[in-house]
Amino acid sequence: MFRNVAELVELAEKKQVKIAEVMIQQEMEVTGLAREDIIAKMEHNLVVMEQAVERGLKGVTSVSGLTGGDSVLLQNYIKSGKSLGGNILLDAVSKAMATNEVNAAMGVICATPTAGSAGVVPGTLFAVKKKLNPTRMEMVEYLFTAAAFGFVVANNASISGAAGGCQAEVGSASGMAAAAIVELAGGTPSQCAEAMAITLKNMLGLVCDPVAGLVEVPCVKRNAMGASNAITAADMALAGIKSRIPCDEVIHSMYLIGQTMPTALRETAKGGLAATPTGKRLEAEIFGQQKQLQS
Q1: Is this structure's pTM higher than 0.90?
Q2: Nearest Cα to 164, choosing from 233, 229, 113, 225?
Q3: Are 176 and 273 in contact (CB under 8 A)?
Q4: How far apart are CA 99 and CA 103, in angstroms?
Q5: Cβ-contact 256, 203 below 8 angstroms
Q6: Cα distances (Å, whole numbers) of residue 188 to 9, 76, 143, 255
Q7: What is the pLDDT of residues 24-74, one digit of tens each?
Q8: Whole-angstrom distance, CA of residue 288 vs CA of residue 116
Q9: What domains sit in the chain, N to C, each tagged with a CATH number?
């Protein structure tokens, strides 16, 4: 039904439906499943996301010890009343980190679009929920909207850190979230596309450099910044601000940047933060401990 963002927006406007509805109809056409079954599957994803956020906010620690507990620290900071950022934004940041802390602790998450970027979409959803008071179905539609934009990126660029750097993972997730926020807030399909473009073009070139090859440092905090980026871009789009570069061109630029990015900066743990003295020391400590446990 649609191959790019321009076609997605055109379909939504022509049919006078939400982008979420376009995605649902496409899934029905591609899979042959009934509408109820497709919605039920996405509802299941929503439950998994909800449980991951709740578990993370209770406090978890990864096997390596590199990550865990930061989402709780931020929630406590919000409650202190001393925070400088808005509570919704910081709540989204905290819940994004909570999800990725659960992932690092070998918990169950929903890859959106990947495990390493799984925090941004649920983090933003459960934060804006407090202000927008969506129905359960509207929350499911939020995920379909995010999925529509993720579908375009996956088929025209990449959502893989190994293929395109972290811009392809957290960058894509952030754009997906921004578009979904706009639709949930009552924005137009065109504004959803603007939010995606604004978000993604400000994360172009982001490298994938996991310390010790683990999806923890800097992945968890990159999800935090991705959530912040998404909310900011959504507000900009809702205010009527547009991206000078069309969304599809931004996505193509991300693809080209990923193609020219050095291998060391694409999930190999051979460059960037992974190659710093501290990054190397942590890797030696982690794998040294594992070898001791195995012997």
Answers
A1: yes
A2: 113
A3: no
A4: 6
A5: no
A6: 9, 35, 16, 26
A7: 999 999 999 999 999 999 999 999 999 999 999 999 999 999 999 999 999
A8: 24
A9: 5-294 (1.10.4100)
